[in-house]
Amino acid sequence: SQQGEEDPQALSIQEGENATMNCSYKTSINNLQWYRQNSGRGLVHLILIRSNEREKHSGRLRVTLDTSKKSSSLLITASRAADTASYFCATALNSGNTPLVFGKGTRLSVIA
Amino acid sequence: DAGVIQSPRHEVTEMGQEVTLRCKPISGHNSLFWYRQTMMRGLELLIYFNNNVPIDDSGMPEDRFSAKMPNASFSTLKIQPSEPRDSAVYFCASRLIAGGADTQYFGPGTRLTVL
Q: Residue A47, exposed/middle/buried by CB under 10 A (0-12, 13-18, 19+)?
């Protein structure tokens, strides 16, 4: 079953604008992670936020987590053409080695 | 570190042929995952191993699919016989959970085309 669902499915913005992608999930989690996939490549880990955290930053990335609403958002500020990619959220249900559950992704296009 | 290594990067074969995909995980990672990605179905988990032991293969679509991990540094995914609907990109990933970090590293993928 699909745990994480990203929204929107596709997003097109101008270079310099901010991009916001959302992820909703269904069950309690240990942590939530965001990954990026460039066309023809494997997924790359971007950032992890734990269930007891509400916000996290990494460079131009800002992730929020609302466990009461079972949702997370990924904000990319001052977007660049190189940010064009698909972005996936993945949930870890516990702290062990059970698999991450990936959503279907948001396809972001940044137009120069 | 070279990251997760997969071979071949591209495979074109005819229906009915056997296909073997290979993966070398990152040294020290104790979990290995095989995924399949298509436009229609997205990213699907096929099977995963912890400490070289298969834990859950419920994602393997049919008996035509099999996976092995004979040691900590090598895994194979085999399709026999292959069918056109098996055409997809197959990813291997290894995962490290340590010191509060939890990161999954994906290989570059094998693009399989079955004619």
A: middle
Q: What is the pLDDT of residues B84-95, one digit of tens each?
A: 999 999 999 999
**Contact call for A99 and B48, based on CB within 8 A:** yes
Separation CA B54–CA B70 (nearest Å): 11
Q: Does B7 touch chain A (CB under 8 A)?
A: no
Contacts of B102 in chain A (CB under 8 A): 31, 33, 48, 92, 95
Given the structure tokens 């995980």, which residue do they identify?
B25
Range A58-83 average pLDDT: 97
- Span A28-57, pLDDT tens digits: 999 999 999 999 899 999 999 999 999 999
Tell whether B106 is within 8 A of chain A (Cβ): yes
Its sign, for the CA torsion A15, B37, A34, B72, is: negative
Question: Could you tell me which chain A residue has the CA closest to the CA of B29?
Answer: A97
Radius of gyration of chain B (CA): 14
In the stretch 62-101 of chain A, residues with CB closer than 8 A to chain B read 88, 90, 92, 95-97, 99-100
Q: What band does B60 get if pLDDT is binned at 50, 70 and 90?
A: very high
Residue position matching structure tokens 């049919």: B62
Residue A94 carries which side chain, given as an amino acid letter? N
DSSP A90: E
Q: Is B74 near chain A, with CB under 8 Å?
A: no
